[in-house]
Amino acid sequence: MSGYKALYRKWRPQVFDDVVGQEHIVETLKNEVQTGRFAHAYLFTGSRGTGKTTCSKILAKAVNCLHPVEGNPCLACESCRGIEDGSILDVIEIDAASNSGVENIRQLREESAYVPASCKYRVYIIDETHMLSSGAFNALLKIMEEPPPHVLFILATTEVHKVLPTILSRCQRFDFVRIPPDAIAGRLERIAQEEGFPLEADAARLIARLADGGLRDAISLLDQCRAGHPEVTLDVVAECAGVAGREHLFEMCSLLAEKDAAGLLRLVDRLYAQSKDLEKLCEELVLHFRNIMLAKAMPGDFEKLAFLLPDEAAQLRAQCARFKMSRVLSVLSVLEEALERMHRSPNKRVALEMCLVRLCGEGLEASAPALLERIEKLEAAIREGAAVQAAPVPASSAEPDMPGRAAGTAEPGKPDEPARPAAQREANPAPSRSFGEGDWAKVLACLKEKAPPVYGMLSASRARAEGDILYVQVDNSFFASFISKEQNQTAMHNIVKLATGGEYFIRADEGGKQPQAAPEDPLELLQKQAGEAGVPVKELP
User: Fold this and answer.
1) Can you tell me the mean pLDDT for 30-51?
2) Per-residue DSSP letters for 372-386?
3) 198 with 207: CB under 8 angstroms?
């Protein structure tokens, strides 16, 4: 039988001074041990691998230690040794995930009535407390209200929101924070030095970043890396952690920048044929665009927060230049939605392919960042509209009219004579031809081909000509104000000329909306109806 012991067990802290990254907690616990003023119940909460169970065991030893040293257990007395090797039964660890029933807690209540056999306190450590059933919580609450003086409860959980508020109010709560990467890297280097195997500093930092604030995960990954490798290097960590060979992420990012849907679908097909987990691929793509977001938001020191290999930083900076921040946020939003859909979908490939096609298609995204990006493109297209040149579009390519109304038949109230932009005043003051049926459809078809964002704004609009003025009817006041700007009117003037050959001054018209009459007062209406019916009505003073 092998006597090997996993590193995370071998290097679990035995005293408060060895706990990493939780100084605000260990100092308070040490002071309580020194003064002898203990709470009857403690609640330790935080993410995994941050020291909750470790501090629970240290506290159980410290309160029963015969000779504590500055708040730490001495590890040499009979109580400390007995608790460590399990020969003393006054410290009981309960896994709530497998002992979640009310009967388990009832048994605990019965046992707690007896004084400890060999220690000063009977300590109950309940791990994963949030897994207890409702009945078990109620049974636990009863004994926590008035516990015997020789009983101490230590509750540990990663999901404190699932613990009853009545339980929380009876505990002294400590929130364990994620351990900083520098502290984790320092601990790993110390372990490697004591164990006698080489560990590169960059490798230790990469492990620390991948551990996401959990020291136990970091030590487990270090243990995995040194198995079969005489030296733990950056390449070894990348291979063991599964972050090596990520060229496909940069390739997907480039294809998204080019909006090459066909190339993305071929790449997904290739990765699927290689048995790549598509849900994991989507998660990796989310992290990749998170790295791009960090690089754009904090270009100086984004590497401290990004999950990157050192040689990937330069490649990521190059890709940042191909995306605006609004585009990055839009991609992240769509990928997160796709990832949530893939969790529920039996066909993950279709969900991922739909997501990528949406990211490549104009106007297919409906997220707020995507709409912002489209508005920016629309503004740019309007500003450059005067430079657009295209052959007149034949009527057959125009969009069909909306059902129920033909183009050019809108009859809103006639607006006042518009002020003519300077660029339009230089043009021919009269149209060179009449604006007939179907001409506005030609304008929309031209916009759809040359300026899709502008077409998206005006696709549901109508137009009518009165002399040399072309009134564009829209139902949105934002679009109306947009068209009313001089530079946008000039651009539309040129587009209309390209599509129809006519010279017109452009004016926005919001459909001739008339203000609604104020509703009649209900009391006056009632009085009027009563008078018509011959019912006498006495006015109130």
Assistant:
1) 88
2) HHHHHHHHHHHHTGG
3) no
The angle at the Cα of 329, spanning 328 to 333, to the nearest 5 degrees, equals: 120
Q: Does residue 122 contact residue 10 with C-beta atoms inside 8 Å?
A: no
Q: What is the mean pLDDT of the chain?
A: 78
Report d(CA 110, CA 402) in Å as an integer. Answer: 78
Q: Cβ distance 141 to 164 under 8 Å?
A: yes
Q: How far is Cα 382 from Cα 390, in angstroms, rounded to an integer?
A: 15
Percent of all residues in the chain with a pLDDT value above 90, rounded to a whole number: 7
Token pair listed for 447:
């916009």
Three-state SS for 255? Answer: helix
What is the DSSP-derived secondary structure letter of residue 42?
Answer: E
Please enumerate in sequence order all residues whose Cβ is within 8 A of that of 135, keeping only pairs 6 or more positions apart, or say none: 101, 102
- Give per-residue pLDDT as tens, 92-145: 888 887 777 788 788 888 888 888 888 888 888 988 888 888 888 888 888 888
Is residue 463 within 8 A of residue 471, CB to CB? The reply is yes
CA angle at 11 for the pair 124 and 159, rounded to the nearest 5°:
45
Place 91 in a pLDDT band, splitting at 50, 70 and 90: confident
Domains of the chain, earliest start first = 7-176 (3.40.50.300), 181-241 (1.10.8.60), 247-372 (1.20.272.10), 387-509 (3.30.300.180)
The per-residue pLDDT for range 484-540, each reduced to its tens digit, is 777 777 778 788 888 887 788 888 876 544 434 445 555 566 666 666 666 666 654
Q: Are 67 and 77 in contact (CB under 8 A)?
A: yes
pLDDT tens digits for 264-320?
999 999 888 888 888 888 888 998 899 899 888 888 777 777 777 767 788 888 888
Q: For residue 127, which of 109, 154, 147 has the smallest C-alpha distance?
A: 154
- Exposed/middle/buried for 189, CB within 10 Å: 0-12, 13-18, 19+? middle
Structure confidence at residue 512 (pLDDT) = 46
Phi, psi of 508 (to 5 degrees): -80, 140
Residues 69-73: contacts with CB under 8 Å, at least 24 apart: 70/30, 70/34, 71/16, 71/29, 71/30, 71/31, 71/32, 71/33, 71/34, 72/15, 72/16, 72/17, 72/30, 72/33, 73/14, 73/15
From residue 338, alpha-carbon distances to 65, 279, 353, 357, 415 in Å are 54, 9, 9, 12, 48
71 in the Ramachandran plot: left (φ > 0), alpha (ψ -120 to 50) or beta? left
Phi, psi of 526 (to 5 degrees): -65, -40
Instruction: Return all residues near 535 (Cβ < 8 A) that are at least 6 apart.
Output: none
Question: Cα–Cα distance between 291 and 408 in angstroms, integer?
Answer: 51
